[in-house]
């Protein structure tokens, strides 16, 4: 579970908006598999394995890296080497290998990140003030709980406040209102029988369309 005291927000990474976590407790920086799919730069093998400890006590093996990724911080371009990590909560995690070289100062109370680099103006960025939901859990924790035998349910959620679309909402129906019948025939299908379709309705529509094209 991610604490509400962390600093998160949207940062421009490799020309795209990315949800970023600034994590001084992480030695390295990471990019999610989903976000990395859209990167227009090649990744390479580390030549060794790095074991990353997760919040649920598991270790994940990391061995791929995207080098010198552009991280735009307050219009200033910085660079980060991002390890490929299968994570859901964030698209990018910026750890100490990025925070330290850029002299980053984190204020978790104010949710700000300040870069005080020599010979450059002071740069301050403010993260999101939205509190994380207390009922949310990460993908890794959910997988861990399911592996321990906890039940998981796949829920289908539908917004009942929105109206279902009608046939009149289709543009082609509105443009050819005189072609489509106002009432569509109902097909009764007995149990065990296959539905039989009649072409009378479609023939009627085709004839109307042909007539309309001739009139024009």
Explain the overall architecture.
- There is one protein chain.
- This protein is α+β, with helices and mostly antiparallel strands and 216 residues long.
- Helix content is 18%, strand content 31%.
- It is built from five helices and ten strands; from the N terminus they run E-E-E-H-E-E-E-E-H-E-E-E-H-H-H.
- The protein has helices spanning 33-36, 96-99, 139-147, 171-175, 200-215; strands spanning 7-13, 16-22, 29-32, 44-53, 59-73, 76-85, 92-94, 104-107, 112-115, 123-126.
- The strands form two sheets. It has a six-stranded mixed β-barrel.
- Strand 1 (7-13) and strand 2 (16-22) form a beta hairpin.
- The termini are far apart.
Order of helices and strands: EEEHEEEEHEEEHHH
Taking the alpha carbons of the first and last residues, their distance comes to 66 Å
Question: What would you report as the Rg, rounded to the nearest angstrom?
Answer: 28 Å
What percentage of the residues does DSSP assign to strands (E)?
A: 25-35%
The helix tally amounts to: 5
Largest sheet: 6 strands, mixed, barrel
Helix % is 10-25%
Low-confidence stretches: none
Draw up the topology in text.
Elements: E1 7-13, E2 16-22, E3 29-32, H1 33-36, E4 44-53, E5 59-73, E6 76-85, E7 92-94, H2 96-99, E8 104-107, E9 112-115, E10 123-126, H3 139-147, H4 171-175, H5 200-215
